[in-house]
Amino acid sequence: MTLHSRDVMGFATKALLGYPVRTGLMLVAMAIGVGSVLVLTALGEGARGYVTGEFASLGTNMVIVLPGRSETGGMNPGAMFGDTPRDLTLGDASALERSPRVQRVAPLNVGSVSVSYGARSRDVVMLGSTHALLPIRHWRMAQGRFLPLSDIDRALPVAVLGENLRDELFAAEPALGQWIRIADRRFRVIGILASSGQSIGVDTAETIIVPVAAAQQLLNTQSLFRILVEARSREGIEPVKGFVENTIAARHQGERDVTVTTQDAVLSTFDEILSALTIAVGGIAGISLAVAGILIMNVMLVAISERTAEIGLLKAIGATSRQIILFILVEASLLALFGALIGLALGHAGAWAIRLGFPTLPAYPPWWVVFTVVLVAVLTAVIFSLFPARSAAKLNPVLALSRR
């Protein structure tokens, strides 16, 4: 019996259309499996893209200095005797500007304060820093100017407001040049920061920024939350990191009691974690593809029992066992392919809904997942259909024609 590819496709298509309910159920099962893989991997990739974007807002050649030494193992002996890490100070920050490889240094304090203008009052996050923070964080001004260039220890009574904070305190009134009260001190508004959304946990639209020395007075502290150091080039990051460690150690009587990390190192760690998470959730969702494959196998076994006479007739007119197996596998492949295509549409619709609900999350399924999930769906259907196909190929044509 000679068969052409269009004969095989026609036979498989008619077999599927002949049992619409059964075909529909298998399409739904495969579509759910494929769609769930796409949605979950899109979530994972969206989280990875969000974190990458957040760190990108810090700058491109960033070295971050934090007080306290991060131990990789064992116990810090100083903790046994009640010693605490030495604070980072404004003097430490000034010392870090002395390298030609360093582009900018921005000391940073963070705290919660009460801000008021007239009868309006708000509790907000306050950042204390210098004029270098704006270019380091790649922020923009909507109005006015940023913190002025001045000595790091001058507590100038000036403030920069986020856009939402400006609207809530001043409504339709002009804010520039007005005096506001932060805790028990008066500050003049000199600029309005353009909203940049969330940046490492801080909403710039809801933030107030003052000179770092003024922030230390308001928070009653001499220590810094961290110091941001920007290298002049990407190649200079590691030399700057070494310079920072040596400089701080020299100022702290030889003690290496700070943690110096780079943006790339932190980002790489998050990237590895979130990539593993994406693969894990994609694998969990992929289990549904195996379930769909088992369903196809079971349905094919039932289909063979219902079409015993039809298979017997094919064998009686000369169809070989290999051709019978080919019929069944093509039928299963078509089921899986159409189900996967429907699943792709559902998955992309789900990812679009996530992006619509959470605009800051770039939830796009990776291209390799789209390709792989279709391939896996078809292979799963073929593999799980081999047993029913071989069972059909072994049928005796005489007994099959008599439905036995």
From TrEMBL:
Subcellular localization(s) per the UniProt record: Cell membrane
Membrane topology: Multi-pass membrane protein
Keywords: ATP-binding, Cell membrane, Membrane, Nucleotide-binding, Transmembrane, Transmembrane helix
Domain named ABC3 transporter permease C-terminal: residues: 284-397
UniProt keyword Transmembrane present: yes
GO (cellular component) term, any one: plasma membrane
All copies of domain MacB-like periplasmic core, residue ranges: 23-241
Entry's transmembrane regions: 21-43, 273-303, 324-347, 367-387
GO molecular function: ATP binding; transmembrane transporter activity
Record family assignment: Belongs to the ABC-4 integral membrane protein family.
Protein's name in the database: Macrolide export ATP-binding/permease protein MacB
Native source organism of the sequence: Luminiphilus syltensis NOR5-1B
